[in-house]
Structure formats: C-alpha cells, structure tokens
Amino acid sequence: MEITRVLDAALRKAAAVWITSPGHEPRLVHSHWRADSLWVISGGTEPTVPGLTDGAQVTVTVRSPSTHSHLIDAQAVAHLTEPDDETAQALKTARLNTKPSWDAVYRLEFSS
C-alpha cells in the first residue's frame, strides 16, 4: 500500500503522533492532518520537541487508531509556518481539555 494512503487513513483519526528528530528521544505531540501535510505544535503549553526546527528531517511514528499498536514510521521534513485560521482552530479544537498555546507550528511534509 502506498505510504500516503496509509498515512491519510491513519492521520485522519489520530490526534497525536510521535516525532523523533536526529539525536533526540521521541516526543508525543498533538497534530492535525490537512492537505497531505501533518501540522504539529511545539512549546508554550504544549510539549517542546527537541531538534524540531525549520528544515529538520524527522521521523513520524503513527499508531493504529483502532488498536493503538505501531502502524508506520514515515520520514518528513519540518517547515516552520504560520497556520491559517482554519488550521489554528483545528489545532485548538483537538485539545479538548485545555486552552493550548504554542511557540511554533510546523507543517511536516512526507516523502513518498
């Protein structure tokens, strides 16, 4: 199965993923899947992801939405960005129990 199809199916239901940047331990971060990119927040009231910088190559680990077991590891490039209003609202809405604030938003683009 093509990686983008697997990612699309899993990330539509996932509210969080594990991000690993070179030389650092994986960190669980809240995310939003949109337009074949994964949007993640870092810092502020959210976990900081060491090594996550503009242009960083990272590994995204996705767990199965139904069994919570390991589903896939995918390589991505992080792009520091300013989210549009719709994406910012989706990132806030995903955090049902808190009022999130963040220092940075990254759009992760996956290699095919």
From TrEMBL:
Q: What is this protein called?
A: Pyridoxamine 5'-phosphate oxidase
